[in-house]
Design brief:
The protein has helices at about 1-25, 50-70, 110-115, 115-120, 125-150, 160-185, 220-245; strands at about 75-80, 85, 90-95, 105, 215-220. The two termini are about 60 Å apart. About 55% of the residues lie in helices and about 10% in strands.
Length: about 250
């Protein structure tokens, strides 16, 4: 019995030695899972880019687009009898003669005070008020979009914060798109023609200004930027959500 016990212990020691040697002989690049936060440790593919890096990259793009939205003069375009004007969130410029602008000038939200139709009729007409409200809405959410895009970059260290900022930026761009589209497609109801109480659907389509010719209104670059940014923000939310689930709450 003693001999059999000694033999068993010898065989066990030999087996442990073989296992130890096999471990030491394993290739140096054998994947060993880690729990270091922020790495793609749950995936054996070391070439995979972390979702947070993709999200942050998209955040940089949306920030550039937000700054472009605030600085462009081409959110929508008015063509009144051949006189062409580009109007942005903050700036506007007349691009054709006579009266062609050499430099962009501010676009103020003072439609009820400056539009001839509102001056001739009632400044409290719902169409006049609606134009001012839409103008102010564009300015507010264009600024919010830029701030949200910048805040979304924090998702590289805090995925939860990145998700919230990117989602809010998506909402801002959806509002920018909706308001701009309403200005482009909405009919301009002139107070002197007694077309009162036309509010929410009022826009610049058919605007006359000082001319007797109705305007032709078309969308500009700003509208395209809002659409693309909205889609990118949704992708950014997905990337940060994937990162959040992969590493857990910060």
């Amino acid at each position: 019995a003693v001999i059999e016990s000694a033999s068993f212990m010898k065989e066990d020691a030999t087996l442990q030695l073989e296992v130890r040697c096999q471990r030491q002989a394993a290739p140096a690049n054998t994947y060993q899972p880690t729990n270091v936060r922020g790495l793609t440790d749950s995936n054996p593919s070391k070439n995979m880019v972390a979702p947070k890096l993709i999200g942050a990259g998209i955040g940089v793009i949306t920030l550039i687009f937000a700054l472009a939205t605030n600085s462009t003069t081409d959110n929508f375009r008015l063509d009144i009898g051949g006189t062409k004007t580009e109007i942005g969130v903050w700036l506007m410029i007349q691009t054709s003669d006579p009266g062609k602008d050499d430099n962009a000038r501010p676009w103020y939200c003072d439609q009820a005070e400056k539009n001839s139709a509102c001056q001739t009729g009632n400044k409290d007409d719902k169409c006049c008020v609606a134009l001012q409200d839409k103008c102010n809405t564009l300015k507010a959410f264009a600024v919010f979009s830029a701030l949200a895009a910048a805040a979304s970059l924090a998702g590289i260290s805090n995925a939860g914060l990145g998700i919230g900022a990117a989602a809010f930026n998506a909402l801002c761009n959806l509002i920018l798109f909706s308001v701009t589209a309403s200005l482009v497609n909405g009919k301009y109801y002139e107070a002197e023609y007694s077309q009162l109480n036309k509010g929410a659907d009022c826009g610049f389509n058919g605007f006359r200004g000082s001319s007797s010719v109705e305007s032709n209104t078309t969308a500009g670059t700003g509208l395209s930027l809002a659409v693309v940014s909205f889609v990118l923000c949704l992708i950014q939310v997905v990337m940060y959500t994937a990162e959040h689930h992969a590493v857990g709450p910060a």
